[in-house]
Amino acid sequence: QRPIRSEVSKALYSKNHCLWHRKSVIALALLSQVKQTSKRHTILVAENLGSTGIELLKRSCNVDLAYNITPEELCAKAPQVDALIVRRGTKVTREVFEASKGRLKVVGRAGVGVDNIDLAAATEADFNDNDVVTTPHRIALPQYGCLVVNAPTANTVAAAEHGIALLCAMARNIPQANASMKAGKWDRSSFLGATLAGKTLAIYGFGKVGFEVARRAKGLGMQVLAYDPYASSEKAAAQGVQLVTFDAALASADFHSLHMPLTPITKNLFGDFAFSLMKPGSRIINAAHGGVIDEGALLRALEARVVVQAALDVFLDEPPDFAAHPLIGRSDVICTPHLGAYTLEAQEGVALEVVDAVLEALSGKLCCNAVNAPMVPQEIMEELQPYIVLAEGLGKAAVSLVRDHGFADIAITYSSPRGDDLDSRLLRAMVIKGVLEDISTARVNLVNADLLARNRGLRITEVHVRSGDGSEVLTSMSVALGTSDSRFSAAVDRTRRIYVQGKVAGGQPFLTKIGNYDVELAVAGSILLTRQRDQPGIVGGVGMLLAKDQVNISFMTVSRAARDREAIMAIGIDSEPSADTLEAITQVPGVVEVTVFKEVITQYT
C-alpha cells in the first residue's frame, strides 16, 4: 500500500526520533529501488570495456554488447536494461532517461569525467501521485532517477607515470633527439640535457596524482615542494615533501609539474604574473587541465627564456587547432595527445572499477563512486533545504579564508533541540561539499563525502549540543578548520582556528560569527570584509572607492569588539572589485586588511 506524504513525514520524523529515522534508507532511494528485485539484471555496454570487465559482468547479469550505438538505438534499448556502461564517446542525454521509463537505474562511466552524461536528467524526478512507488522501508520514492557512478582512481598511477615520463623526456630532450636521428642526423651538441638529481620539483595540486608524482620524483633524487592550500601537512611530511606557498614554489623550483583541478580559482592560474616569479631557465609540465595555463602567457615566457622548455599533455581545446596553435610547433615544447591515463593497465583498471561500482549499486549497496546525489523525498528536502544551504555555505566560507598552508581537521558543531538524536550525515556531507568542491573536481554527495575527505587526509569531528526545546532542526551550526593561516586574520578564533558560525532565520541562512566577531549576514552573492580600527571615515572611504570602481553595494554592517577598538565591516557587493581597488581599500586610514567572499552560498531550488 502506497503511503501518502503525511504518513511519510510521520514515519521519518517524530519528537523523539532523529532527523532521518536511523532504520530508514536515508537518501538512498535509488539504491533501495534497485535492491527490491532478485531477478538477473540486464546491463547494456555501449563501448568496449575489455574481456575481463565483460566476463565479470556476465557472472551475475545479462550483458548486451552494443558498440558504436546510435542515439536512436540507445533510446530504443533504454527501457530494456537496468544499467548502462559507457566511456567518453556515448552521450547519455535526457532523451535516454525519459525513454527508459524508470527502468534504467545505474549509468557507469568508465573514466573520471561525466560531461557526456546529463546529470540533472539522471537525478531529477517529479513527486506527483503517478511517480511514487513504495519500498519496504515505507519511503515514497520517484520511479525516475538514476544513479551515475564513475571510476576515479584506477588511472592515478598511469597519470603520475606519464608526468614523470614527460619530466624525463623534457630534461634529456628525448623527443627532439629521436626526431633528429630519424632525419639521419648525429647531432649530440644540440641536445645537452639537465640532470634531475638534486634539482627542485614543485608540484601544484597534492591530491592522488600529485602524491604519486612526488613519490617517484623523490626516487630520482629530486627535492620536492608542493603547493596545495587544502592539503594535509602531515600527508606531505610523510612523503618528505615540503608544503609551501604558491609564490615560494614558483620562485624556488627548477621544474614545475601541474596536477591541480580546473576550477574558477585555478583557471589561468599560470599567467604572466606567475611566470614572472619563476627562475629564468625553468621547465613546466602540464598533465592536469589545459585551462590552468594561459597559453599566450606561456608563449611569452618561452620567448623570454624564463621558461626554457614545456611538456604539455592537455590543451585548452582538444583536439587543438594544429595550424593556429602557438605552442605545438615549437621545438622547446613537447606535446602528447592527452595520454595521461591511456595505458593498457589503466584502461583495464578503469573498466574493472566501473563494473564493481555498477554491480554494487545494482545490489543496493552504498557506492562510494556515486557522482550524483541520491534522491531525497521532496517533503524532506523542503524542511532541510535552508540547513543544507547553510551547511554548504559555512564550508565554502571557511575554506575561502585559508591562505597558503593546508589543514587536516574540520570540526563541526551542531546546536539542536534534538541533541544527539540529530542525524547529521547529510549536513556533514554538505559541509564537506562546501570545503572540497571549489578546490577539486569531485562531486560530493551523501554517499561519497566521508571517503573523499579521508582521501585528502582530512579528519572530521562532530559535536552535538542540545539547545532549547524548539521544533527547528538546528538553532545554530559552526565549522572550524584546523589552521590559523588565514588570508583574513580576524577569522581566526581564540583557539587559533578559522571559525565561522551560522543559523537559519525566517527560512534563510545567515552567517552569525566570523572568528571572534558576531555578525548578522544574510549571504547571497559576494561579500567584502575589512578589519579596521573603530574610527570615523572608514565607511565613507571604502564606499567611495567601490563607487569609483562601479561596484554596487547591497548592504553594509559593522561588528566591533568594543568602542574605539577593532571592528570588522561586511559589505554586500554585486560585482567583484578590481585588484587595484582592493589595494586602495587597504590604504584607507584605519583599514588593516581586506578580503572578498565569492558566492559563498548557493541557493537551491
From TrEMBL:
It catalyses: (2R)-3-phosphoglycerate + NAD(+) = 3-phosphooxypyruvate + NADH + H(+). The keyword Aminoacyl-tRNA synthetase does not apply. Residues 527-599 form the ACT domain. It comes from the Eukaryota. Signal peptide: none annotated. Its EC number is 1.1.1.95. It is an enzyme of class 1 (oxidoreductase). Gene3D superfamilies: 3.30.70.260, D-3-phosphoglycerate dehydrogenase, domain 3, NAD(P)-binding Rossmann-like Domain. CDD domains: ACT_3PGDH-xct, PGDH_4. Keywords: Acetylation, Amino-acid biosynthesis, NAD, Oxidoreductase, Phosphoprotein, Serine biosynthesis. The keyword Transferase does not apply. Pathway: Amino-acid biosynthesis; L-serine biosynthesis; L-serine from 3-phospho-D-glycerate: step 1/3. Belongs to the D-isomer specific 2-hydroxyacid dehydrogenase family. Homotetramer. This is D-3-phosphoglycerate dehydrogenase. It comes from Volvox africanus.
